[in-house]
Automatic annotation (TrEMBL):
<dbReference type="GO" id="GO:0008289">
    <property type="term" value="F:lipid binding"/>
</dbReference>
<dbReference type="Pfam" id="PF01852">
    <property type="entry name" value="START"/>
</dbReference>
<dbReference type="InterPro" id="IPR002913">
    <property type="entry name" value="START_lipid-bd_dom"/>
</dbReference>
<dbReference type="InterPro" id="IPR042160">
    <property type="entry name" value="HD-Zip_IV"/>
</dbReference>
<dbReference type="InterPro" id="IPR023393">
    <property type="entry name" value="START-like_dom_sf"/>
</dbReference>
<keyword id="KW-0539">Nucleus</keyword>
<dbReference type="Pfam" id="PF25797">
    <property type="entry name" value="PDF2_C"/>
</dbReference>
<keyword id="KW-0371">Homeobox</keyword>
<keyword id="KW-0238">DNA-binding</keyword>
<dbReference type="GO" id="GO:0003677">
    <property type="term" value="F:DNA binding"/>
</dbReference>
<feature type="domain" description="START">
    <location>
        <begin position="1"/>
        <end position="160"/>
    </location>
</feature>
<keyword id="KW-0804">Transcription</keyword>
<keyword id="KW-0805">Transcription regulation</keyword>
<dbReference type="InterPro" id="IPR057993">
    <property type="entry name" value="HD-Zip_IV_C"/>
</dbReference>
<protein>
    <recommendedName>
        <fullName>START domain-containing protein</fullName>
    </recommendedName>
</protein>
């Protein structure tokens, strides 16, 4: 990605929260002290607040009140740096403070960029559940490696979404560029919806149903009104965590495989699941958007498809899906507006148990149902 586009993503709070939706649960620009000079972000200075998350209610979020500064060092290099303002406002109580953190972005030939990322924080992590302590202590949960891995994967996804032709790796019922872009936009909204509803954000109130450890089932209810992208009524979300003695990649490959879906997904009703469309989203074959059809004897499911996005990088993997109405999906495949397709996403976050992929995985399950 071009270095100027990267700077814009970091300085525009809406783009920043969208690109890093798995990490940034909430963010707001409180004040813009400088917009920069010469029509760009050089010298831009803004006061922000943000909440950072792991996709589990068992890991408390980190909230920061900070200033973000953008500076062009040379013709080819930009710096975007954050530092907490809590020390200037003793009344602000926070478990996490940012020392100077951020990234250096260097322009490379042919529209590429080199990114060096640093996360330097003071944090009280005593409230993290034992099942996630190794992950958090390794830096894979909130550290620079996760930010860079997410940025790399999102750049690949953006390049795929902006493609002006249908790549050879795509298969199925997608026949137009417009339909491809609409389906990817719908999948992006599904992923953002999942990420916003499974973490420990202070905007949510989770209730523990049962258990006394990591296998607790936590539930949350929210009202859905006047949102064309979500069915009206009460939305119930449930989440639980568990450890598996197998590598995360094996768990990821099993969950994203449509042929194994009838072994765990109630939506399949033990029927045969067929992949109708496949959009490749990067170098790893696990990064893809799929449209699935359930061939079941249940007549009530004859008008239902399943939209799925799977993605993986060195810090974690995700399989996120939602049932979609076949009539609405036909509109999307024809290039129609996907914002009016009602979605209730569910899915899995599969995280490594510590700093290596040789150990077990910690799948995080989030289920959303509409009543």
């Amino acid at each position: 990605m071009n270095h100027i586009n990267l700077v814009e993503i970091l300085m525009d709070v809406n783009q920043w929260t969208s690109v890093f939706s798995g990490i940034v649960s909430r963010a707001l620009t409180l004040d813009i002290l400088s917009t920069g000079v010469a029509g760009n972000y050089n010298g831009a200075l803004q006061v922000m607040t943000a909440e950072f998350q792991v996709l589990s209610p068992l890991v408390p979020t980190r909230e920061n009140y900070f200033v973000r500064y953008c500076k062009q060092h040379t013709d080819e290099t930009w710096a975007v740096v954050d530092v907490s303002l809590e020390n200037l406002h003793p009344s602000v109580i926070s478990r996490c403070r940012k020392r100077p953190s951020g990234c250096l972005i260097q322009e490379l030939p042919n529209g590429y960029s080199k990114v060096i990322w640093v996360e330097h924080v003071e944090v009280d992590d005593r409230a993290v559940h034992n099942i996630y302590k190794r992950l958090v202590n390794s830096g894979l949960a909130f550290g620079a490696k996760r930010w860079v891995a997410t940025l790399d994967r999102q750049c690949e996804r953006l390049a795929s979404a902006m493609a002006n032709n249908i790549p050879a790796g795509d298969v199925g019922v997608i026949t137009t560029i417009e339909g491809r872009k609409s389906m990817m936009k719908l999948a992006q909204r599904m992923v953002i919806g999942f990420c916003s509803g499974v973490g420990a954000s202070t905007a949510h109130t989770w209730t523990t149903l049962s258990g006394s450890g990591a296998d607790d089932v936590r539930v949350m209810t929210r009202k859905s009104m006047d949102d064309p992208g979500r069915p009206p009524g009460i939305v119930l979300s449930a989440a639980t965590s568990f450890w598996l003695p197998v590598p995360p990649k094996r768990v990821f490959d099993f969950l994203r495989n449509e042929n194994a879906r009838n072994e765990w997904d109630i939506l399949s009703n033990r029927g045969v699941v067929q992949e109708m469309a496949h959009i490749a989203n990067g170098r790893d074959p696990g990064n893809a958007v799929s449209l699935l059809r359930v061939n079941s004897g249940n007549s009530s499911q004859s008008n239902m498809l399943i939209l799925q996005e799977s993605c993986t990088d060195s810090t974690g993997s995700y399989v996120i899906y939602a049932p979609v109405d076949i009539v609405a999906m036909n509109v999307v495949l024809s290039g129609g507006d996907p914002d009016y397709v009602a979605l209730l996403p569910s899915g899995f976050a599969i995280l490594p148990d510590g700093p290596t992929h040789l150990g077990g995985g910690i799948p995080e399950v989030c289920l959303g149902d509409h009543y």
